[in-house]
Amino acid sequence: MNIILLGPPGAGKGTQAGSLEARHGMVQLSTGDMLRETRKANTELGRQVADVMDSGQLVSDEIVSAMIDAKLGSMPQTTGAIFDGYPRTEAQAVSLDAILTRHGRSLDHVIELGVDEDALVDRITGRYTCANCGAGYHDRHKQPEKEGVCDKCGSEQFKRRADDNEETVRQRMQEYRGKTAPILPIYEARGIVTRVNGMDSIDVVTAALDAILT
Ligand code: AP5
Ligand code: MG
User: Fold this and answer.
1) At 67, is the pLDDT very low, low, confident or very high (cuts 50, 70, 90)?
2) What is the model's pTM?
């Protein structure tokens, strides 16, 4: 099974992809996470990627599609892929079709997480992750069971993303509306789009995704 999770910044793509990975044996392919790894390197590419991400704009189609192609090439064909934050433009959607064909895969579902943009600013500015294992948390909506200790790995170190400030979030939303939302009709024409209410609680959204995948 290969699925795309589509939705604006803060819609819950990463949260739900992590949960699907754990319960369905699928692998999350987040171009945002891959780019955050790239920007850690002190290289010309790392610096370029960091500048683009911190401005809230999109990194070039060629860079992200090459990352997805390489990741799929390293995965067994029978392991399902959850595309999180990719594709984000029409050019990326076209590339994804070619990449999937090359790796003997096809798309089963495109799941759109529908959300209210004002609530997203609250979600994103409250978000943080475990600095050791990457598990995601939120100041109000998803706290660790024991305060200050990661539920998954026990680390006491947490971090916040550089692009999670209100100004950058507004720019990221504008990119979503202008470049990403317009790719939905491509998948609607294939009859593979399902809309899920991303304003429901995390557990209710998870149950809705389970119902689609089973
Ligand atoms: P990326 O990392 O993909 O960020 P994004 O799309 O802006 O989405 P987010 O990761 O912010 O949100 P999410 O939907 O994963 O929400 P989450 O689950 O964390 O991209 C970052 C940048 O990289 C881009 O701006 C661009 O520059 C570049 N980039 C990446 N991919 C690219 C591509 N393909 N092409 C070009 N450039 C690319 O949830 C948010 C918070 O809310 C969490 O704290 C969570 O706990 C909480 N939460 C989640 N669900 C709920 C719920 N139902 N109720 C209450 N709280 C919830
Ligand atoms: Mg994410």
Assistant:
1) very high
2) 0.94
Q: What are phi and psi of 182, to 5 degrees?
A: -65, -10
Q: Measured between alpha carbons, how far apart are the two ends of the chain, in Å?
A: 10
> Relative to the alpha carbon of 50, which ligand is closest?
1
Which structure tokens are listed for 8? Answer: 């604006």
119: confidence class by pLDDT, cuts 50, 70, 90: confident
Q: Which residues does residue 158 pair with via DSSP β-bridges, in sequence order?
A: 130
Residue whose C-alpha is closest to residue 71's, from 110, 38, 36, 103: 103
Predicted pLDDT at 118: 83
Which amino acid is present at 120?
L
In this structure, is the dihedral angle defined by the CA atoms of residues 50, 56, 62 and 65, taken in order, positive or negative?
positive
| Coil, strand or helix at 132 | coil
Average pLDDT of the chain, as a whole number:
95
- Write down the pLDDT at residue 7: 96
Ligand 1: nearest atom to the Cα of 88: 34
Residue 135 phi, psi dihedral angles, 5° rounding: -60, 140
The atom number, within ligand 1, closest to the CA of 35 reads: 23
Of 54, 59, 90, best ligand 1 pocket probe by most atoms within 8 Å of the beta carbon:
59
Report which of 24, 28, 7, 57 is spatially closest to residue 134, judged by C-alpha positions.
28
Residue of 129, 74, 132, 69 whose CA lies nearest to 96: 69
